[in-house]
Amino acid sequence: MATELYLVRHGEAVANIEPVIGGMRGDRGLTSRGREQCRLLEHRLSRRPMHVDRLVSSTLPRALETAEYVARALGLPVLHDEGLHELRPGEADGLTVQQWRDLYRVGEEPPGTRESYRVFSPGGESWATFLARAGGALTQLVTRHRDETVVAVCHAGIVEASFALAFGLGASAHRVDCAPTNTSLTHWRHRLGPCGEPLWTLVTFNDASHLTNSVLPESPAQDAVPLHGDDRAGTGEERASSTARP
């Protein structure tokens, strides 16, 4: 027996295309393109139904909005999990990128690329504390829902953290930016080994086949947003990987 964990990245968000720090204050939800991506995901999940026991979501607006589409397709209520938030920016939440750089004397490098223990801004997380929190949330999910199928609507940073957790990588390890596509599915299988050790199998990564050959609204010109993963520009479907799919 095993726990099947599907991580769904939210649809394209305003925070992905505008140079604004998108925490709880700065998150303005999905773009029209993002809502269309979610509609296509809902159609896919409705057309090819899969058995799911639990649907959970980050409580950031862009994730909750995405979860509404998934909930309709699966016929499940959305359980909220704040542990699935993207890296928490602290006082910089809602500032423009330039304001953040000027106020906190930040260079061009995203946090975590060189200084894993530097907080994004006062009251926020560093890459190290984010990995600890996100890894704990994912571990709790597979422990609490053992031998069930769980869909979690979350963020690119959470997907990246799942690789760090599965591969046993700490904050000081080399980072690999996996850059999952908006509304893509990443499927992990978790079970316990003979001595109770956690065993992770990556079944599918970045499956966004529902976006293939679809005509989506154009996004505005993108400015590089220097948060890791989820809040940085560059979410085109050309990075989608069509592999095994539910």
How would you concisely characterize the structure shown here?
This protein is an alpha/beta fold. It is 29% helix and 15% strand. It has a six-stranded mixed sheet, sandwiched between helices.
Structural overview:
This protein is of the alpha/beta class and 246 residues long. It has a single domain, classed as Phosphoglycerate mutase-like (Rossmann fold), CATH 3.40.50.1240. Helices cover 29% and strands 15% of the residues. It is built from six helices and six strands; from the N terminus they run E-H-H-E-H-E-H-H-E-H-E-E. The protein has helices spanning 14-17, 32-47, 61-74, 97-104, 127-144, 156-167; strands spanning 3-9, 54-57, 78-80, 149-154, 185-192, 198-207. A six-stranded mixed sheet has the order 3-2-4-1-5-6, with helices on both faces. A hairpin with a 5-residue loop joins strand 5 and strand 6. 45% of the residues are buried. The model is unreliable at 221-226 and 228-246 (pLDDT under 50).
Provide the descriptors you would attach to this structure in a database record.
246 residues; alpha/beta; Rossmann fold; 6-stranded mixed beta sheet; globular; disordered C terminus
The helicity comes to 25-40%
pLDDT under 50 segments (min length 5)?
A: 221-226, 228-246
Provide the CATH top-level class. Answer: Alpha Beta
Count of DSSP H/I helices: 6
CATH superfamily: Phosphoglycerate mutase-like
CATH topology: Rossmann fold
The count of domains is 1
CATH architecture: 3-Layer(aba) Sandwich
Structural class: alpha/beta
Average per-residue pLDDT, rounded, comes to 87
Q: Give the terminus-to-terminus CA distance.
A: 19 Å
